[in-house]
Amino acid sequence: MSLRICVFTEPHRGADYEDQRRFAQLVEACGFEGFFRADHYQTMGADPGLPGPTDAWLTLGALARETSRIRLGTLVTSATFRLPGPLAVMVAQVDRMSGGRVELGLGAGWYEREHTSYGIPFPPAPERFDRLEEQLAVITGLWRTPVGESFSYHGDHYQLVDAPALPRPVQVPGPPIIVGGRGPKRTPELAARYADEFNMPFKSVAETARAYGRVAEACDRTGRAGAGRPPLVLSAGVVAAIGRTDEEVRRRAAPLHAKSALPPEDAVVGSPAQLVERLGEFAEIGATRIHLRLIDFDDLDHLELIAGEVLPQL
What is the per-residue pLDDT for 257? Predict the structure, then answer.
C-alpha cells in the first residue's frame, strides 16, 4: 500500500494561531505530507469555538514561514468569501512565501449561518456553483498567463480587464487545485475541467468509490486525457479517533457525538490497526492521498500515535 497522508484540521472549533503553529510544526516533524485547514468563520454547533475564528489564508501565510517541507492548503476555501482576482493574488503570494508548497481547495460554500453572521452574501446553490465555476476559470487563467501578458475575463458574475496576472506563483502552471464533495453532477464536471485532485470528504469506502466513478466519467466526457492533462489525484477525507486503550478512543471520539450542522460522517474509531485497514480499503478503490481529520489541537499525542503506528505501514 502506498498512500500520502496529510492532516486536516478545523480551527473554527477553537484554535488560535499559536495552536495551529505548534500543530503544523509537529505534523512536519512526524513525517506527514501536509497540513490542511478548513476555511470557516464559525462553528457548526453550540460551542462558540473560543477564542474565535482565524482567517485561513492569513494563517497559512504565517505557517509558510514557520515550516519548511509540508504542503499547506485549504479544504476548502469558499467561493463566497473572496473575489477570484484577489484570491489568486493571495494564494500566489503564499506559494512564494512557502517556496512552492501551497494547494488551493475551492468549493461553492454551504454553511449559511456563518454568512449571515458576518454579512457575507449567500446566493442560492445554483448561483453559488456558477460563481465557483467562474472563480476556477479566473484563478487558473491568471496563473497560466505568461509574464508580460494580461488576462481578461467576461463572465456573468466576474469581469476582469487587462489584469497583469501578477504575482506569479512558484509552482507552474500554478498551485494544485482541489475540488471535492458529494454532489453528483456539477462537482465531477468542475473537478474534471479545472482540478488537479478530487477529494471525497468523510464518507464510506463504497460512497467514495461511486464518487470516483462519476469523476472518471466526467473526465472522459470533457476529454481531459486528450487535452494532455494528467489524471486527477483521487483523495479521501477520513475522520480518525484512534487510541491505545478503550478510554483513549472514547475521549477522542466524544466530539464526534456533538450536535452539528455537518452531514453524517463515516469515522474510524478504534485502534491504529483499524485505521490502517480502512486506509487500505481506500487505496484499493484508487485513492492515493488521504486527509486525516484530527479534531483536538491540544492532543499532540494523537498525532504522534498515528505517526508512529500508522504511517510506517503505509
Answer: 80
